Amino acid sequence: MKNVSDKVMMVKQGITNLCYGFFSTLANPTRLAIIETLSERPMSVTEIVESIGQEQSMVSHNLRPLVQCNFVQVRREGKHRIYTLNQETIEPLLETVQNHFEKYCGNGVNCPHRDWSETSSME
Amino acid sequence: MKNVSDKVMMVKQGITNLCYGFFSTLANPTRLAIIETLSERPMSVTEIVESIGQEQSMVSHNLRPLVQCNFVQVRREGKHRIYTLNQETIEPLLETVQNHFEKYCGNGVNCPHRDWSETSSME
DNA sequence: TCTTCATATGAAGAATGTTTCATTCAAATA
DNA sequence: TATTTGAATGAAACATTCTTCATATGAAGA
What we know:
The structure is a homodimer. Chain A contains six helices and three strands. By secondary structure, chain A is mostly helical. Chain A has one domain (4-109): Orthogonal Bundle (Arc Repressor Mutant, subunit A). A three-stranded antiparallel beta sheet of chain A has the order 1-3-2. The longest helix of chain A has 23 residues, at 4-26. The interface between A and B is large, with 57 and 57 residues. Chain A binds a DNA duplex through helix 4.
């Protein structure tokens, strides 16, 4: 890195590209389900498979981008690979989402992906 | 809404679907560029078009999900439509992304979408 | 009302992303 | 080392999302 102003420029200019990778990785139901189940506790692939009810191959495929983005970490443990959630990033992220949800989408009226809004119209 | 435990269940179960809409809307370079430029000041469509250098039609198409998700708001002003960023959600969100970036992706090594990592390997 | 400027919309082709199936790899244990 | 178990990988079929082009809408001014 040449100097500070280069770094500033990089960060400024890079926000769009940076965020694109970040959010693309999160914009997938299987990966979100993995995140959700790992928020309970670290798990092996087999445990994740059982927990979210998807094929092993699919879970593996979706774990890769999560690891590459450092949303989860892996360690080997005998025959198993244990996946752990990066709470430090995920927690504040989900808190922001939930705040937004409660404030702006409370009754599910104006959201583009409507699946979840049906869940919330149970009053 | 029936009671508190129903609400808890809804929030708990709904996180995956909720986040999916949220993150899908953000997982797009054009929409991120719109967000980035609107972080400067509110703008009309024409101004956004000039600022990010994309076709008017494309900007319009991409503004819709941003509005529906309440990431931006619109008001009419004479002939124009002025789009304003919802700072309340976007600011903490980008802060989390940037923290993550600095901590885990500082040298761009392990990220799945590599476009931006080239920008950062300029040392 | 006719025209113009600003923006939105629809639809089709192009580009990306996801899912599945078959196969491979790697560690443990017999 | 052969076998078994746990997990990753590759490729093709399938699905979703983007981009573009043409057209429509709607407000303001002539």
